[in-house]
Design goal:
mainly alpha; Four Helix Bundle (Hemerythrin (Met), subunit A); 7 helices; 2 strands; globular; transmembrane
């Protein structure tokens, strides 16, 4: 390279098409109606960034509740409350931005999904640090969830679709299942049989993790086939 040749930085495509959000979980319509009802009722000083931060606070409460349940099982109720706080912040931040027409697509996409990754780590790590689920089992579930997240982000880049639900379930359904699991831990956590050293909570969380890993493999094959059939530039040709 000659002395006068400038070093090229990464090229950012600012003309990329908006990403289509696909959400087909069972509670999607009811949840959308609730979010649309809440948005105009939030105080004017509430900002989407505040809600994103609140979602992280909710994940931290979940982590503390699960971790502290070693000392007293009543701490699990803090985790239940944390799931509600996490839903409120995580679900409303983008909805509020769209309602007030203050979207920042690039910044919002980056911050929101970064917060999702941190929140997921706190939730699943807390589960693995509780006395009810082995840490290595929780890490399988974390690996499966993060693989599905990677698939969603890759698909958003290559096919322009961000799929937020699979098998009719999305983040809200997952939170409800985890709340149910947490209540079951409170009620029966100390009185469950073991199978090969693992209790039923281990088996449920582990099965969910392996199921997500399998879903990642299947969805990767489906998306790869779709891209191959559409051609390198899809149906619209090169931008």
């Amino acid at each position: 390279m000659s002395r006068g040749t400038p070093i090229q930085g990464p090229v950012v495509d600012r003309s990329a098409k908006p990403i289509m959000r696909i959400q087909e979980n069972l509670l999607a319509k009811a949840e959308r109606r609730l979010l649309n009802w809440l948005c105009p009722r939030l105080p004017a000083w509430t900002k989407p960034d505040h809600l994103t931060s609140l979602g992280i606070v909710g994940a931290a409460l979940i982590f503390i509740g699960f971790s502290a349940s070693h000392a007293d099982r009543n701490w699990l109720w803090l985790s239940v409350a944390g799931f509600l706080v996490h839903w409120f912040g995580d679900s409303l931040d983008g909805s509020l931005a769209r309602f007030r027409k203050i979207e920042r697509p690039r910044f919002g996409y980056f911050i929101d999904h970064s917060a999702d990754g941190l929140g997921t780590l706190l939730i699943v790590a807390g589960l693995g640090l509780s006395p009810f689920v082995e840490l290595e089992v929780a890490m399988i579930a974390l690996a499966g969830y993060l693989l599905m997240s990677i698939h969603a982000f890759l698909a958003a880049r290559v096919v322009g679709e961000l799929k937020l639900s699979y098998v009719a379930a999305g983040p809200t359904e997952l939170r409800i299942l985890l709340i149910g699991l947490t209540v079951a831990m409170y009620l029966w956590g100390g009185h469950l049989p073991l199978f090969l050293g693992y209790n039923p909570f281990d088996l449920i969380v582990g099965a969910a993790g392996f199921g997500l890993i399998l879903l990642f493999i299947v969805q990767t094959m489906v998306t790869a086939r779709r891209i191959a059939l559409e051609g390198e530039w899809g149906d619209t040709g090169p931008a």
